[in-house]
């Protein structure tokens, strides 16, 4: 079977299909009135596998597989495995803090995990889960104010070509504008993932819309604007899935985990 893993797939009764999306191995089988979904992981966070394989028989699930059954209509034989954005904001911790000088703008390329949504035609959803499970973290000034997010590490690349293309991760071009007279030192960036879409570019990389964060008078907040499409770097980008939340751009958003200092060089 030659196809992108998110294309619609036909699985007849008594047969199966095996989807490989990075470290996730997903085997979906069709019985009389059920879908059987088995999930396993290779454990390799930089696994670049991306394929769909047709299986003539329903295989036995592996010893460590997580198997779920879904009752469905007798004639249902079609489904899609769509990459979608995470169901929480994603806090990306930079490997090394980055200082943005006064009156300076910079674009940082930040990677985040994609979720996979299994759907029948008509958007009948079977399941949804991450291709690679990130850790959880709290983002906010104290334990009462803030939000539960996913946590991931990033090199915070300023050059796109230095990022590896992985089928279980999406890239966001985050433009940070520091319009004030003091330098801005950041060690974490909070990406509002639920407000973003997933696009696929010609080179196979997944993207979100371009995001702009503008430093405001209150240091811990940023004004956020989400673009209407993938950034110009995503040549030939086609939208595969939409946002979970639709909100107005320009709102204040607690975006940076950082110390702002007038003494920062």
Provide the fold topology.
Elements lengths: L8 E2 L5 E6 L2 E7 L3 E8 L8 E6 L10 E6 L6 E7 L5 E11 L3 E10 L1 E6 L3 E7 L4 E5 L7 E8 L14 E10 L5 E8 L6 E3 L5 E2 L3 E5 L6 E5 L11 E4 L10 E2 L2 E2 L8
Parallel strand pairs: 8-13, 14-17, 14-18
Antiparallel strand pairs: 1-7, 2-3, 2-5, 3-4, 4-6, 7-10, 8-15, 9-14, 10-11, 12-13, 15-22, 16-17, 16-20, 18-19, 19-21
Characterise this structure:
By secondary structure, the protein is mostly beta strands. The chain has two domains: 9-83, no CATH class; 85-114 and 131-257, no CATH class. Helix content is 0%, strand content 49%. The chain contains no helices and 22 strands. Strands 9, 14, 16, 17, 18, 19, 20 and 21 form an eight-stranded mixed beta sheet that branches. A hairpin with a 5-residue loop joins strand 16 and strand 17. Mean pLDDT is 86; it is low at 258-265.
- Distinct helical segment count: 0
Q: Which residues sit in consecutive blocks of at least 5 with pLDDT less than 50?
A: 258-265
H-E string = EEEEEEEEEEEEEEEEEEEEEE
Query: What does the radius of gyration come to?
Result: 20 Å
Note the main sheet.
Answer: 8 strands, mixed
Shape by Cα distribution: elongated
């Amino acid at each position: 079977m030659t196809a992108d893993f998110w294309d619609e797939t036909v699985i007849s009764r008594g047969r199966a299909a095996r989807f490989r999306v990075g470290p996730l191995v997903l085997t979906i089988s069709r019985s009389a009135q059920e879908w059987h979904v088995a999930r396993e992981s290779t454990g390799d966070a930089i696994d670049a596998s991306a394929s769909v394989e047709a299986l003539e028989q329903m295989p036995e699930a592996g010893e460590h597989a997580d198997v779920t059954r879904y009752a469905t209509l007798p004639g249902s034989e079609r489904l899609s495995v769509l990459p979608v954005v995470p169901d929480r904001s994603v806090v990306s911790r930079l490997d090394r803090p980055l200082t943005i000088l006064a009156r300076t703008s910079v674009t940082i390329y930040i990677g985040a995990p994609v979720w996979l949504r299994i759907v029948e035609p008509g958007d009948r959803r079977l399941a949804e889960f991450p291709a690679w499970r990130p850790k959880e973290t709290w983002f906010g000034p104290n334990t009462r104010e803030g939000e539960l997010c996913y946590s991931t590490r990033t090199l915070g690349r300023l050059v796109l070509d230095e990022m590896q293309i992985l089928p279980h991760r999406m890239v966001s071009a985050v433009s940070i504008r520091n319009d004030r007279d003091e330098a801005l030192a950041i060690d974490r960036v909070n990406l509002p993932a639920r407000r973003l879409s997933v696009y696929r570019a010609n080179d196979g990389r997944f993207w979100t819309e371009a995001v702009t964060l503008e430093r405001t008078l209150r240091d811990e907040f940023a004004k956020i604007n989400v673009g209407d499409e993938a950034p110009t770097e995503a040549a030939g980008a086609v939208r595969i899935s939409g946002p979970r939340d639709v909100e107005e751009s320009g709102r204040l958003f607690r975006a940076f985990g950082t110390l702002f200092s007038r003494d920062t060089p």
